[in-house]
């Protein structure tokens, strides 16, 4: 069992067609978001910093490895929540990176919102502002398959 602290590390990501939606959502939820540590991919992070008028730690842009950097931070336990407004109608050259990021979020059992409605439910949950005891799935049987 791992503890997600009261003050969370939140990664925010948005594809180009979803950046406006994420900025509107973030501004509406500014009071809740600024209480946490915010991380984002390149352009999204710059825009969020301007909209929220608070620091946002930026990774590379998604196509230049930002999705993978966030995935690595998730696997290291450094990201506690992922808000990813992705565009389901446009195929992007870095789609495999996006799939890998979402897979890592599932593997490490962190809360993920992929659209505005889910983000609204997530941020309005009482768990968003308090410590949370996260249960990690037991991958021992899977890992032992490869040991001989």
CATH structural architecture? 3-Layer(aba) Sandwich
The proportion of residues forming helix, as a percent range, comes to: 40-55%
List low-pLDDT spans. none
Distance between the termini: 28 Å
Number of domains: 1
Instruction: Tell me the CATH topology.
Output: Rossmann fold
Description of the molecule:
- It is a single chain.
- With 148 residues, the protein is α/β, with parallel strands linked by helices.
- It has one domain: 3-Layer(aba) Sandwich (Rossmann fold), CATH 3.40.50.
- It is built from 7 helices and 7 strands, in the order ββααβαβαβαβαβα.
- A 5-stranded parallel beta sheet has the order 4-3-2-5-6, sandwiched between helices. A two-stranded antiparallel sheet has the order 1-7.
- Helix 1 runs parallel beside helix 3 and helix 4 packs parallel to helix 5.
- The longest helix has 13 residues.
Short description:
It contains 7 helices and 7 strands, in the order ββααβαβαβαβαβα. With 148 residues, the chain is of the alpha/beta class.
Layout of strands and helices, then pairs:
Layout: E1 2-4, E2 9-14, H1 19-28, H2 30-33, E3 37-40, H3 42-52, E4 57-58, H4 66-75, E5 81-85, H5 95-107, E6 112-113, H6 116-124, E7 132-134, H7 140-144
Parallel strand pairs: 2-3, 2-5, 3-4, 5-6
Antiparallel strand pairs: 1-7
Helix pairs in contact: 1-3, 4-5
List its traits:
two-stranded antiparallel ribbon; 42% helix; Rossmann fold; alpha/beta; 148 residues; 5-stranded parallel β-sheet
């Amino acid at each position: 069992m791992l503890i997600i602290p009261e003050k969370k590390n939140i990664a925010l990501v948005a594809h180009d067609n979803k950046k406006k939606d994420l900025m509107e959502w973030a501004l509406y939820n500014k009071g809740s978001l600024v209480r946490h540590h915010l991380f984002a991919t390149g352009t999204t992070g710059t825009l969020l910093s301007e909209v929220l008028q608070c620091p946002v730690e930026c990774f590379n842009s998604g196509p230049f490895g930002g999705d993978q950097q966030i995935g690595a931070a998730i696997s290291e336990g450094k990201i506690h929540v992922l808000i990813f407004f992705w565009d389901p109608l446009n195929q992007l050259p870095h789609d495999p990176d996006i799939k890998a990021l979402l897979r890592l979020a599932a593997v490490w059992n962190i809360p993920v919102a992929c659209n505005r409605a889910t983000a609204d439910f997530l941020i309005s949950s009482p768990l968003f502002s308090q410590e949370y005891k996260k249960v990690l799935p037991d991958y021992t049987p899977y890992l032992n398959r490869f040991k001989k």
